[in-house]
Amino acid sequence: MRGPHLRRAAAAAAALTWALALAGCWDYTDIDRRGIVLGIGVEFAQGEEPLLDVTVDIANPSVIAGGGGGPLTGSAPSQGALVLTQRAGSVAEALHSLQARVDRRLALPFVQVVILHEEVARRALGTFLDFALRDADLRSSVCMMVTPESPRDLFHFQPTLGPESSVWLTLASENYTIASTFPRCLTMRLLHSELAERGVSVTPRVMWGPDNHPILDGAAVLASGGLVGWLDARETQGVLWWRRELVEAILTVPCAGDGQVVFTARQSGRHLALHEELGEPGVTLRLGVRAAVREVSEECPLSGKEAAVDDQVLSGLQKAVFDQAWGALEAARRLDADFLEIGLSLRRRYPRRFREIAQGRVYVPEVVHLPVSIEIDATIAEFGELN
User: Fold this and answer.
1) Are the beta carbons of 357 and 364 closer than 8 angstroms?
2) Which domains does the chain have, with CATH numbers?
């Protein structure tokens, strides 16, 4: 996921810059006839449901290229984009109607992100996916996010550092491998595939954070029927432990006295097994964790070397990972959704037993209610590098 999004973001800017460089002025190239759409937001029209408010984030090539002609129609000179909202009965109708409001043909090949409001994701996810999958420009590389906020307001955000809001959100989503507090962002095709194969999927949640700044925090849980609920950042990190998608996490554990030890932790293995107790199936999750000391507080009487071999610190590290994994399990049971991929793992490893449990179904969310045992095997290094 990291490569395609990054390449498309760079290609969008490069294509505009290249066109300007060829002619010296974008008024004399085809670029002045195209409105490069970088983001699409969809929400229900307040007070006029089921009408939709569809917002588009259109790039200003003169700002992206650092010179050339003036801004797009309706945008402020200092802005890098034009944000327009159209009310209509469908996304396709809205995009068609928007053509009459700009002096360029809307072009979708460089769309970076689609943001769905939670009510659209809850009640009309299937309809939107059907539209997106029929469009070659949208189905293959566009990142989808869900928000409890207004997508229109999010697109009006102007980043201080970096490109305009759509590209900024897409590039921020690439940090999932480091941040570990939100899941990777899926394309429409992959999202549809996950829903068909697994019955459930998770995608980043966009929210307003401190200082009126949007952030990616936690996840939206999607099932074939639509949005079923939210995960906070801690629950999301637990999900990544389960799914073997966590690259790196920062964990803080107590040590003797009132001190604490801060670790960088990485997943070194995962084994999900089915067991039988008194004829009833159960699940055992074994997580391997490698951790390295990053910081030891002054209140802790241990050195970094001592902390790396201290039994109490080791137990604290195991408990920290266990709590995150167990919190994700509790969230799955609360939402009755198997985004932990227990069913998928059982289907691949124990196909005969899974068929007995599933009784002909592909997606069996109730597997999250089976008895579960979580075991953590952790090792600690003295220094903070795990490479």
Assistant:
1) yes
2) 2-231 (no CATH), 241-381 (3.30.300.210)
